[in-house]
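Budget justification, computational time. The allocation requested in the original proposal was used primarily to generate structure tokens for proteins on the priority list. As evidence of use, we reproduce two of the resulting records. The first is shown immediately below.
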Amino acid sequence: QVTLVESGGGLVQAGGSLRLSCAASGRTFSSRPMGWFRQAPGKEREFVAAISRSGGSTAYADSVKGRFTIPRDNGKNTVYLQMNSLKPEDTAVYYCAAKTPYAGSREDYEFWGQGTQVTVSS
């Protein structure tokens, strides 16, 4: 069992930056691919970014490419989402997620955090 706790959300003006953190419990963090998703009001949850176990491989949704990054610190059991040049359309609840240890790219995420609200004002 893995518990994921997000933090760092809040209200920011368009063009600003925020860094979300996701702290994971347990001893298996470094073996788990991690991801960030978001869900805006009235919309389905969508993929934002993903990172491999070592951090050597990342992937991003086209809508955030060039603005967001997803570093991880395996020594701190934490994955981050650095969000720059924020836009009002980035407003959503952001969730981090963890896959099964050593899971491949096609496998589903196994554990989810409770989410943190990000609001970008125009």
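The second record produced under the same allocation is shown here.
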Amino acid sequence: VQLQASGGGSVQAGGSLSLSCAASGRIFSSHVVGWFRQAPGKEREFVATIRWSSASTWYADSVKGRFTISKDKAKNTVYLQMSSLKPEDTAVYYCAVGSGRNDVSSIVEYNRWGQGTQVTVSS
């Protein structure tokens, strides 16, 4: 499966942005599709993920209540709606597909990655 992330941009603190991750190829029902982010000089970190076959979602504590992950299976696309954005949300955001068998927040569980999309939040 190949992933194409889009929707990044620049926004002021408190604003909103929506990211999309379009997948070409089959995503198995047990898989999860997630978002990670990487700020300059920092390691890539988990943001949110969603089970392809159900409504199960997981979020990093830092984004709970502000970000919402969703999917449109007919479009083979996963979305990340981000609101109440903070300067510390500034990063390159990546989408990825993982097996979903173990820790869904662990980067090692993900083996298909899209290119990143830049999100910049100014104060």
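A brief technical remark on that second record: The chain has a mean pLDDT of 96.
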